[in-house]
Structure formats: structure tokens, C-alpha cells
Write a structure and sequence with these properties.
This protein has 341 residues and is α/β, with parallel strands linked by helices. It has 9 helices and 17 strands. The N terminus and C terminus are likely disordered.
């Protein structure tokens, strides 16, 4: 690094470009390891991040149906790491039930996604009383969890600032020109210059509020078309998501998606009929053709992308590898697949 490149700005050991969950967790792990870190984000706050618009589910055990084994492995390791990074994370398990008109769908799901304990109606009522009278059986994935992204991202920022990490929101520039010895590039869809095969996947969700229903676990409803996740948040708020479709336009929710989200929530529990709709939200997730995350390790820049809807699920495990690479000056990453050249 030359003095000209640094200019009048303070030289740091590591610049993290992108303030989503992947970027903030990498920055926190690095800062705790004694690395001097700065975070750069082109948006003015977290609200534009795909991580902000996510359900916050940490459910790698249920990912076996669609995800590569590497994603499942990363997610399982991340579940071990999350409590040390975010005290508010809840690793209390998730529940899976099937549409009452199609109970056989639960067996098909169970065949593809192991790691559960099957509950009968009595056991389900003990764990989640609101569901016991509606469903005769459920699958309980006891090691899974969830976070509230709207609380988690500011908490991670506060933890980083307490360690002396500076944030640069509204930053526009070239990563290679940043005054840092090494750079971690986690820009999502902004990283097409490094990952030309990136495509956008639009995820749509709804936030509703009702005090007529209490759930303490995230619940996945399986039906013939797709799965719907209902994730509880404080204050009687529930996140209902998510419908997905390939698109590069992700700021608005379609009428079809809004109808599906609310209809399937009502199918999960009739108490949602009187729920107050607070918000519909859409966001674009960065995905690669094979659906798996990729890491490109250069002499100075390490780029991570293609996390799609798995950012919260896998971020700690990938960050653990990145910090190891930074510390050892290595070009070998233990997890994930290398980027295609």
C-alpha cells in the first residue's frame, strides 16, 4: 500500500465493503481477533440490505432439499457461532407442519430433510399451544433458530463501534483504492464486476401484527406449491415469507405474492384473519447458477457472493474462514466453493 493510495485517510488492516450480515459478522470476528477494521457501505443505512429484508431464519437442517451439502455444513457451524456474536439470537428450534388438506406432504418433506424429532398433537400442544388443536403432528428441528434482522444489524454495528470500527455509509468508490492492507468484498448484486454470472432473486414478505396469536417458534407450512415461513417478532409482529422469483427489479411486491403470503398465513392459523398488515417488503438476493456461495481469494481482495437467501444462515462460518485466511495470509478457503475463473 502506497502513501498515495492511502491519501489522508487512516490505513486499516481490513476494509469490509458491504454492511449486510456477511460483512458485519466478518468485521466483528476480525476486530475481535485484533485486526483493525473499517466498514464501507454504499447505502445510507441498513434498510436497503437484503439482510434487513430477510425473515432471519437460521434453518440449515431444512435446507437439504434444495441446498448443496456445503451450505448445510456452513449453516450447522454458524448455529454454533451465533450466540457468541449476537446475544439476541434464539436457538430454540423451528417447527414444520403440513397443510391440513395435504398431510402427506409432511412425510415427503421429512424424507428429504433429516435432523428432526416428530411430534404428535399432544407434544406439539406442549411446545406450541396455539397449534396443538389444529395439527395432528409436526416436525421439530431443535437445533435451528432465528434472529430479528432489524435488531441484529444495529446490534452488530454497536458491537463493532465499541471495538473502534468506523462505518462509512453512503460510500461510492473502487474497493481496490481503499486505504487497507486487505479487502473483503461482500457487495451482493453490486459485485457483478467480480461475479459476472450473478442474478437477482426477488424475495417478498409481509409483516403483520396480531395479539390473538402467540407463537414462540418459527413455523414452516408445507403445501403443494411451496413452503411458507411464519417467524415471530416482539410486540405481536409476525414475518410471513417468502415468495421468490428471478428478477432484477425487487423494490415492489406483486399482487399475486401479497395474496399468496396472506392466504397461506390464514391457512396456517385462522387468527391471522384479523391481523393488521403493517408492511409488504421485497428485496433482491444475489444468486449464482448453482445456487451455492462462492469465494474468490486474491492477494489483496477476498470476494464472497451468491449467498441468496442463506446470508444469515451461513455468515458466521464463512467469516470464520475469512478471518483465518486474513491472519495466515493464505489463499485457501476451507468452506465453500472457489469462484469460477
Amino acid at each position: 500500500m502506497t502513501a498515495a493510495m492511502a491519501g489522508n485517510r487512516e490505513l486499516v488492516d481490513l476494509a469490509v465493503v458491504g454492511a449486510g450480515p456477511m460483512g458485519l459478522v466478518t468485521a466483528l470476528m476480525a476486530a475481535r481477533a485484533g485486526v483493525k477494521v473499517a466498514v464501507y457501505e454504499r447505502a445510507e443505512d441498513f434498510s436497503a440490505s437484503a439482510g434487513w429484508k430477510a425473515t432471519g431464519l437460521l434453518s440449515p437442517l431444512q435446507a437439504r432439499e434444495t441446498a448443496d451439502a456445503t451450505v448445510v455444513e456452513l449453516g450447522e457451524r454458524s448455529l454454533e457461532l451465533w450466540p457468541s456474536l449476537l446475544p439476541s439470537v434464539r436457538i430454540t428450534g423451528t417447527l414444520v407442519v403440513a397443510n391440513r388438506r395435504h398431510p402427506g406432504m409432511l412425510d415427503k418433506f421429512a424424507e428429504k430433510n433429516g435432523g428432526y424429532r416428530e411430534l404428535d398433537a399432544i407434544e406439539l400442544a406442549e411446545l406450541e399451544p396455539a397449534l396443538g388443536d389444529l395439527y395432528g403432528r409436526a416436525l421439530h428441528y431443535g437445533g435451528e433458530g432465528h434472529v430479528d434482522p432489524r435488531q441484529a444489524l444495529p446490534h452488530l454495528q454497536a458491537s463493532l463501534e465499541a471495538l473502534g470500527v468506523r462505518f462509512h455509509f453512503g460510500w461510492v468508490g473502487v474497493a481496490e483504492r481503499l486505504p487497507a492492507e486487505r479487502i473483503v468484498d461482500v457487495r451482493g448484486l453490486g459485485g457483478r464486476d467480480r461475479f459476472p454470472h450473478l442474478r437477482g432473486v426477488r424475495a417478498e414478505l409481509a409483516l403483520v401484527r396480531t395479539h390473538e396469536l402467540v407463537l414462540s417458534h418459527p413455523v414452516r407450512l408445507i403445501n403443494q406449491r411451496h413452503a411458507l415461513n411464519v417467524v415471530p417478532r416482539p410486540g405481536g409482529i409476525f414475518v410471513i415469507g417468502a415468495t421468490t422469483s428471478e428478477s432484477d427489479r425487487g423494490e415492489t411486491v406483486t399482487l399475486r405474492a401479497a395474496g399468496e403470503l396472506l392466504t397461506h398465513a390464514l391457512a396456517l392459523h385462522p387468527a391471522f384473519a384479523e391481523a393488521e398488515v403493517l408492511e409488504f417488503r421485497a428485496g433482491l438476493m444475489p444468486s449464482l447458477p448453482d445456487g451455492n456461495p462462492q469465494i474468490s481469494v486474491g492477494e489483496r481482495v477476498i470476494a464472497v457472493n451468491g449467498l441468496a437467501g442463506n446470508g444469515w444462515t451461513v455468515a458466521p462460518a464463512i467469516a470464520e474462514d475469512l478471518v483465518r485466511v486474513i491472519y495466515t495470509q493464505s489463499t485457501k478457503v476451507i468452506h465453500s466453493r472457489p469462484a469460477r475463473r
